[in-house]
Amino acid sequence: MSARNEFLLGLLGAALLVLLALSAPWLRFVLTVALAKGLAVLGILLLLRAGQVSFGHALFVALAAYAAAFLAPLLPEVALLLPAAALVAALGGLVAGLFVMRYRDIFFGMLNLALSMVFYSLLEKLYGLTHGTDGIRLPLPRVLGLTLEGAAYEWVLFALALSFAFGFAALVRLWLAAPLGQALSGIKTREARLEFMGVPARRVLLAAYILSALMAGCGGALVALTSRHVTPALAYWTASGELVFIAILGGAGSVLGAFLGAVVYELTRVYAAATIADAWQLILGTVLLLVILFAPGGLVGMLRGLLHRRPTPAKAGERPA
Amino acid sequence: MTGWFSENGLLLGLALLDGLASAAAIFMVAVGLNLVFGVLRILNVAHGSLYAIGGYGAASLAAAMAAMGLPGWLSLPALVVAAALAGVLLGPLIERLLLRRVEGQEPVLQLLVTFALFMILEDVQKLLWGVQPVSNDAAMRLLGTVDVPFGQDVIPYTAYQLFVLPGVAVATLLGLAWFTRRTLAGRIIVAVTEDREAAASQGIDSSKVMMLTFTAGAALAALGGALASPVSAMVPGVGASTIVLSFAVVATAGLGQVEGAALAALLIGLGRSIAVYFEPELEVVVPYLIMVAVLLVRPQGLFGVPETRRI
């Protein structure tokens, strides 16, 4: 998809989201969370380009959310709180990244899962610090010095999420077109060749990993500010699985897929999860299998197939031209 | 130090005994994970779910047998039967219907397929066995307790955890060593592990070997769960923690190392049970601390050989 077409489709989607948020006030909250998750999914897509899948990326979502919760009483200002929390996640990404960068494929995925499980159990067990599964409530922060209540505050966060979505989607597109992003595809096909060309593969991947942690962190901070309540469940493996699921559902080939997938997922979840809570992971797993086996281009691939009237040859994790 | 020991000696003794028993169960899962990875080149994320299903199945079978009034000594073989059933029913199904379809595809797709299966099986457990802890300690009560001398103290400990669990693990370890070195079937598996194409050119049906190996691996995981079920209750989420724990064992030992996995399981099992008695908050973290510490010094694991890079 050309940059212009994707941008236009993005604008169309954004207009649709604003209309939805205007039509039903409770959707504002749902859509803000969906866009926040989309940011984290964007990070998964970036790593998928290098053929790597992280089963623990909710770690960075939760890291930023808890950072926001701890900083909120000291720094009750959205304009400061959000970047600070995202920065904590990026720093976490640097530390974790330095360790997991030595591994690929299975080890990469599983070590990420292990790190997130450690963080989850620390959040749950260190009751004195984190209040365990009860979680922490955030006081209402100010927005640029103004105290906003109710709808106004929600609109501000919705707008923030939407502009972050556009900003980071553009950044990821640029990143993937730049040498730094082209080298990511090289890691997937054959890393040794990259290194023969003098490209430091680990550093290329580390840079992408830190960016993905930063984006997950922005998502996490937005979730914390929107729901104003953080719990260890944010870091649980199901949350990480959700992100991987959305990435594949939306279509690993396009930045648009991250947000399309996230919005479709969240809307479905709100309507369906209450009635079939016990079988939710079962349904997710089944849909994931079906998408991998039968519709590897995801939702974006299907959309593209409809627009162009021809089936898309893209596989999950690959970028169509 | 002597003062600390006289105060905490009993706890330390219990921690060592518990660690031995839990190491045995983790080893059973890790060894299956290794076996499957060796032949199929797929790390099965749903492997921990097979442990959970083995455990739930064994507890249900034991409860059903008690309800029918069957003699108590049957509860021991019932554990093995439940595990074998779980492995033989699920193993070929998963291998043929799912893994076969993504054979030879990108590693990330294979990982995602087993991850999807893991999500499905986690809920299948909840649907079949509910969210309340499920356990049946008939097999453990059957064997009673023995007094274990420890320093000046005597620790009464269940014979089941002391003999059956480590016994089965040691038997598995020795049996596998004998199987892969001395029998034709074992050597065929080793041949497929080393080079699938070369093995196929010698007339080995690698497709059949892959299915049988996967089934054996699944049965080993289920056996681990079945053996653990009289000691620790099965709860939702046990599959997730088991796969991560057994992965920690495999990574610490080095991928593909069977004897190494036994040592790593012991290290991690003991580390965890010592944490349970002395620093309970750290229980979940200790196995990963051990793993990360080992991987920082030796990225290929304790006994792993660094992979030569193909160009």
Structure report:
The complex is a heterodimer of chains A (321) and B (311). With 321 residues, chain A is mainly α. Chain A has 14 helices and two strands. Chain A has helices spanning 3-23, 25-49, 58-71, 78-100, 105-125, 127-130, 150-177, 179-189, 191-196, 201-227, 237-250, 255-272, 280-294, 298-308, and strands at residues 136-137, 229-230. The longest helix of chain A has 28 residues, at 150-177. Chain A is globular, with a radius of gyration of 19 Å. A two-stranded antiparallel ribbon of chain B has the order 1-2. Chain B has one domain. Chain B is globular and about 65 Å long.
Which geometry of chain A do the CA atoms define? globular
Helices and strands of chain B, in order, run as HHHHHEEHHHHHHH
Number of strands of chain A: 2
| N-C termini distance of chain B | 56 Å
| CATH topology descriptor of chain A | ABC transporter involved in vitamin B12 uptake, BtuC
Query: How much is the average pLDDT of chain B?
Result: 86
* Whole-number total of structural domains of chain B: 1
User: Strands of the biggest beta sheet of chain A: in what spatial order?
Assistant: 1-2
Sheet bearing the most strands of chain B, described? 2 strands, antiparallel
**What is Rg of chain A?**
19 Å
Q: Main beta sheet of chain A: strand number and arrangement? A: 2 strands, antiparallel
Shape of chain B: globular
- CATH architecture type of chain A: Orthogonal Bundle
- Cα-to-Cα separation, first versus last residue of chain A: 7 Å
Order of helices and strands of chain A: HHHHHHEHHHHEHHHH
- The assigned structural class of chain A equals mainly alpha
Spatial strand sequence of the major β-sheet of chain B: 1-2
CATH class of chain A: Mainly Alpha
Could you estimate the helical fraction of the residues of chain B in percent? over 70%
